[in-house]
Design brief:
By secondary structure, the protein is of the alpha+beta class. The protein has six helices and ten strands.
């Protein structure tokens, strides 16, 4: 007599159903885990290539017809101690995850409330920077920046000239701001306004802002770009994240060091 005909046996019983469900779940878990492990190197490579492309774009060097790794050959990745503004020699900057480090008790620090204008709560003690060279000559420094917008965290890169004060470019590569309004931070015409602007006043205070409306002529114009119509809160978020990361708790000490070096070499 077949097993399913034995007295008391039912293939539709609760216990049988549970056994099958658990078995299927275990098989699926193994397959998903195996796929994740197998695909992880590819995912990490894709993320690294995407990051390199954005850095190249903000540096004005990206060529879609050339291999990204070759284009990145003139860019040196360094790690900066944000408190001192000095390069960190004993840590490998490649693959350093500043967001993960921010939540690490040993690698991250809490941002004081009076300085947390970008709404980050914590940041890493160190940050990667990308030094763009032409031979031995440094052309610009690319700094990762992020901060709260209206609906999301805005992630981008700020390019600064060797004087540590002049903006060379800005790009945002990730956000979830309102389509048609907040996403104007991606528009080339608006981003182009940043080039040549000054981050600091003569006293070294961060001054760069997104204006309300159109930038008006005057002494502050060198620190302003036009506002984003219908996206005031997103524009404010850009202002705050730029001022935080160029301030004393962000890349301020590092940029001050660059400015000092530029004056010494000038």
């Amino acid at each position: 007599m077949p097993d399913d005909k034995k007295p008391g046996f039912s293939r539709d019983s609760i216990s049988n159903t549970l056994i099958v469900a658990i078995g299927v779940s275990l098989v699926c878990s193994v397959l998903v885990s195996a796929a994740a492990i197998t695909l992880r190197p590819l995912q990490e490579a894709n993320q690294n290539e995407f990051r390199q492309r954005i850095v190249l774009e903000v540096a004005g060097l990206y060529d879609p017809d050339e291999p990204i790794d070759e284009q990145f050959g003139n860019i040196e990745t360094r790690l900066v101690d944000l408190d001192t503004g000095e390069y960190v020699q004993e840590m490998d900057p490649q693959g350093f995850d500043a967001e993960a480090a921010a939540n690490d008790p040993e690698l991250g620090v809490r941002i004081p409330k009076d300085k947390d204008i970008a709404g980050l709560n914590r940041r890493a003690a160190y940050a990667p920077v990308y030094v763009v060279k032409d031979g031995d000559d440094i052309q610009q420094y690319i700094l990762p920046v992020r901060g709260k917008g209206l609906w999301s965290t805005l992630y981008g890169y700020l390019s600064v000239a060797p004087d540590g004060n002049t903006v060379a470019g800005l790009r945002f590569y990730e956000h979830a701001e309102t389509p048609g309004l907040g996403d104007k931070i991606e528009q080339e015409a608006w981003l182009a306004q940043w080039e040549g602007k000054k981050l600091y006043d003569e006293q070294g205070n961060p001054q760069m802002k997104v204006a309300r409306g159109t930038v008006q002529p005057g002494p502050d114009a060198i620190h302003r770009v036009d506002g984003l119509s219908g996206a005031t809160l997103t524009a404010n978020g850009v202002t705050y994240l730029i001022q935080y990361w160029t301030g004393s708790h962000g890349f301020g000490p590092y940029l001050a060091n660059l400015s000092s070096e530029a004056n010494d070499n000038g």
